[in-house]
UniProtKB/TrEMBL annotation:
UniProt keyword annotation of Lipid metabolism present: no
Single GO MF annotation: tRNA-guanosine(34) queuine transglycosylase activity
UniProt: Zn(2+) binding residues: 332, 334, 337, 363
Segments for region (RNA binding): 275-281, 299-303
Superkingdom assignment: Bacteria
Organism: Rhizorhabdus histidinilytica
Lineage: Bacteria, Pseudomonadati, Pseudomonadota, Alphaproteobacteria, Sphingomonadales
Name of the protein this chain belongs to: Queuine tRNA-ribosyltransferase
Residues bound to substrate: 116-120, 170, 217, 244
Cofactor note: Binds 1 zinc ion per subunit.
Amino acid sequence: MPQGATERKPWQYGAAPLWPAAMTAPRFHFSIAATDGKARTGTIRMQRGDIRTPAFMPVGTAATVKAMKPADVRATGADIILGNTYHLMLRPGAERVARLGGLHRFMRWDRPILTDSGGYQVMSLSALTRRSEEGVSFKSHLDGSAHMLSPERSIEIQRLLGSDIVMAFDELVPTTTTVQQQAEAMERSMRWAKRSRDAFDAGGEHAGRAALFGIQQGALDEKLRKASADALLAIGFDGYAVGGLAVGEGQEAMFATLDFAPGQLDPDKPRYLMGVGKPDDIVGAVERGIDMFDCVLPTRSGRNGQAFTRRGPINLRNARFGEDERPLDESCACAVCGQFSRAYLHHLIRAGEILGAMLMTEHNLSFYQGLMEDLRAAIATGTLSSFAADFRAAYHGGGTGD
Ligand SMILES: [Zn+2]
């Protein structure tokens, strides 16, 4: 240690306050810089940093974007990441994260974090769920322990985590249920949206520094979607998510719903399409007026050996890449494509090496952020339709990555 240097304990490195000291940025402000058809590009200003839209949020399920250090996630171009309420409430527990200074300090990501409400994972992952007007009781998929999620508890957990964008707690039903069931679930979700709003507003300092999004439901039905939008607009939120899509209905049905659903929401607020999606899903949704996305696809499929390229996805497990010395994507500017060959990645993935998952994830997240950057530039220059046509032609041009 150099003379005069003060010895610091490991836990003092990078220790940050729960909120940044300089409070020059507004709590939440969305400005649209340019539009092209229904598409918009702009900036969300928040206290922990700006979010350029359309934005893609990498998913950090368990307080980590899997296989990536936070600084490397940022280097791909991500302005914001997503954290999962359901996973974090079960392990390590929201109260523990709060005692350790909040999610940002815990995982060393100092930019905005959006947290989901936990409702989707409760339905999809846990056993023995029981729904009532109060909320959803369930048993943990990890150890079978009993838990309860309600609008009030979901908002409390998101506050304990120190979330920047909090999602209202809602009830998800499959698009295959009857219209009557969808209507009842949507109406309950709107009552829960009001309870979420009230719980958020009672949150003290957190309410003064974070934002709350409502979630439109109503499956594929235009009238239900309109009723849901009207109920949310009457309550008032900082942004609005289009929920209940990307649950197996297919791209055609999703786009048909996106032809009307975003237009029913406040045009001056961000619109977030939850859980989407494949690169061509994102391009089509941006054309229909969506501003924000999240999806596990680039990270999960990267770990499974799939790389996204402008000429379609490729599976690096395939034997034909065994002696292919080209980068994953010759048009990609990421650090992985600048250094490593398909042949090397093929070897790492076949051998089950951890570095394979790390490099594939880094490339895939860079690909997604590069796509968002190109979409923002195309909207800004009024060239979105030709960009989208060129993108689709190359992407679906055989899917060989060649
Ligand atoms: Zn790359």
